[in-house]
Description:
CATH architecture: 4-Layer Sandwich
Low-confidence stretches: none
Radius of gyration: 17 Å
CATH topology: Nitrilase/N-carbamoyl-D-aminoacid amidohydrolase
Number of domains: 1
Structural class: alpha/beta
Number of helices: 6
Order of helices and strands: EHEHHEEEEEEEEHEHEEEEH
CATH superfamily: Carbon-nitrogen hydrolase
Distance between the termini: 23 Å
Oligomer: single chain
Mean pLDDT: 95
Shape: globular
CATH class: Alpha Beta
Largest sheet: 7 strands, mixed
Helix content: 25-40%
Amino acid sequence: MCDKRFSLAVCQLRTETDYEETMIKAESLIRDAAVSGANVVVLPEMFSCPYDKKYFRIFAQMGHADTCRRLAAWARDRHILLIGGSVPETDGELLYNTSFVFDADGNQIARHRKVHLFDVDLPGMRFHESHTFTPGSEITVFDTPFGRFGLAVCFDVRFPELFRSMARRGAEVICLPAQFNMTTGPAHWESTLRTRAVDNEVFFVAASAARYEGFSYECWGHSMILDPYGKALAEADEKEQTIFAEIDLSRIAEVRAQLPTFLHLREDIYTVSN
């Protein structure tokens, strides 16, 4: 039996070039969120490593074990479910952009390796994650005391089939650690998040890093928590901050009763595997 109501927080922190400085700050934000009543805390993509190709391998060489050890301790000490943003994960010679999840006892209960890598050629910006990272190959859905969660990372959000698959597997809350940039952020961030929430009639939690003005990669910020109707329950600006929302999972059944799209899927014409 899951708790149908719980408090969720997104810590929109600014990642520093100094690892220890970032981790001290992350611990402080998580502590404050828990003290304020959050049962679930979500961190941004690459929260522990500056989002720039010249840092990925340098920080990966430090190993992800220390970051995971601290995430586990923070979850256990604050008795929260912690969605640990994402970090550079090493697996032999391979490097992944990976989100780790820890329960209130500090146990790792899920891991999502970013499936779709950010390879783009935008006006004024060329970025190829595939030059550094290996793509993941799994759809990530996991059970918690607060219901069934789905998990993806940033560029994954542009592939709706992935999110429909999570919804078909019973995900009620989908979390997306991310770092949209200053081109795609104002153009697509909010509209894409709302669409994924509305299409699948789920709670959608998008955790961005805060903007680091003057850094080589400036992210858009604007973390959001959306309900299954696409209503924004909480929204940040570009600065470092924590946003909160009260999640009531009964809202999903209410919305799906009003708009029963899942009852009208034409699986004789198209299908997304569950």
